[in-house]
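Bumping with the actual sequence this time:
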Amino acid sequence: MRCIIVDDEGMSRIHLAHLCKKIDKVKVVDTFADAMSAYRFLEQETIDLIFLDIEMPDFSGIELVQSLPKPPAIIFITSKEQYAIETFNFIESVVDYLLKPVTLPRLLQAVERYEQRIGTTIVNVPQPLAPVAPSAKTVQENDDYLFVKTERKFVRIDLNELLYVETVGDYSIFKTKDQQFTVHATLKSVKERLSSPNFLKVHRSFIVNLDKIKDIEDSSLLIGDKVIPVSRNHRNRLMERIMPL
């Protein structure tokens, strides 16, 4: 597989390239110290996989993905796990997420995940993102689903199955009828990405799917068998949205 490495840290590039040489099936075509140089390269060349640092000055790894109409497969690399939530919007391109310093066993695992996916077309979200200027700092949304990263893997959650999101400290719990997924992300970050009008913040610790509410009392609502508090500040907004008879 033809790949490139994009990372502003020189030692990280050297280290990862050295590990890639130990894997016969991986061919590092080139390495780049900044995302803009990689962007220009990708305008002319076709590759299979990008090992991509997230946090880089001027033009981040996420902005690079946003700027590519049809991005190749992506393996994000970073020293800060909290950036995982930023990858939600490019999930169909993202294969894995590696924390620095990358180890050979973990790299092998990521390459194996890539190989498991090459039998299907790796594309962006179903409604393709329009290319954006490299300097833009926007985040594209998807109205049908989101992916959450939990236990070093990405899990798809269809929004019509999501009951609510609850915050516990710096973590958010995504609850469906049959499962729940704990993610390192604040409720504020989640709210920014749940742009669907079906979702509403009703408490400092809860965002709910309005379609799943069974009933509402003065200071609480019921979804499934979960009683969720409704704060005074959010109650009026809730009542406006459900438009009771």
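The tokens above came from a reply further down the thread. The chain is about 25% helix and 30% strand.
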